[in-house]
Amino acid sequence: KTMPTLPPQDLATGGIDFSDDTAITRWCESLQEKLSDYEFVLFHVAPSCASFSRARDRNHRTRLRCLAHPAGWYPNDETTIYGNAVARNTARVVNYLLDNFKAAGSWEEPLGSYMFPYLEQQNILTAVPDRVVLLHQCKFGRPWKKPTAFSCFGGLRLRALDKRCTPSSPCQRKFHVTLGFGGAATAPAAAYPAALCSAYAADVAAHISASSRRSALARASVHVDGVVSRHTDRGLTRISVKASREAEDAVSWAG
Fold first, then answer.
1. What span, in angstroms and rounded, lies between the C-alpha atoms of 226 and 137?
2. Fewest C-beta in 10 Å: which of 9, 70, 90, 91?
């Protein structure tokens, strides 16, 4: 089955600027009309982490943050200001989706990023992830390891993504390509490999299937003894002979 989706909301594909507070407010308001008819709403966000990456810590000239100061050492630094705005507005969108649509979804960032410490310090993201899935992209066909974290919300599990390259479960590569700072360019590594996308889609399908079963059970018509009589999704149906007899017996004094 195909699932209706909204277009990606990033500047590279003609979307909105997540550093623009006003644009984010207007976009959230527009979601009410776009999503109100859907039973399930799922999201995935992967905000720019250029200023939050721990890779910057390799050199004191590029370092912008630390755990004690995740908002940044230099308040007037343009890269820091932009990164904080994008992280803040992404959290606003996630809060809105979870609060208004009971959505489920994921937030991707490089492992060890300063983004979540920043959001926690500023008390911006009101939702707490249900779980955090860690993966290495070499397990999905990439030449680099690139440790990545997927924070899950609304009951999304992402079991198929839980793959790491360890001594007991290594990938098939003889060595890993180093990204950035004298290594390979980081831009190509921003795109998810096809195998990772397939695994994510499988997890989303499993989540929808499980949610459908839970939702269906909540709409079942149940006897006092716990036996399901008729599911309300079937609509109005003729009462069965057995149910009719049971109804007569329940009100009969003569048997």
1. 47
2. 9
Q: Which amino acid is at 177?
A: V
Residue 68's pLDDT is: 94
3 state SS of 55 = helix
Q: Is 22 exposed, middle or buried (0-12, 13-18, 19+ CB in 10 A)?
A: exposed
Q: Give the residue from 116, 100, 138 showing the smallest Cα distance to 45.
A: 116
Please give the model's pTM, rounded to 2 decimal places. Answer: 0.79
What one-character DSSP code corresponds to residue 184? B
pLDDT one-digit tens code per residue, 147-162: 999 999 999 999 999 9
CB neighbours (10 Å) of residue 164?
Answer: 16
Cβ–Cβ < 8 Å for 139, 161: no
What pLDDT, in 10s, does the model give residues 192-211?
A: 999 999 999 999 999 988 88
Residues 6+ apart with CB under 8 A from 48: 18, 82, 83, 86
Instruction: Determine how β-strand 104-110 pairs with β-strand 147-153.
Output: antiparallel
Query: Span 52-62, mean pLDDT?
Result: 87
Neighbours of 72 (CB within 10 A): 20
Q: What is the dihedral of CA 37, 42, 43, 44, to 10 degrees?
A: -160
Measured from the Cβ of residue 175, the count of other Cβ atoms closer than 10 Å reads: 6
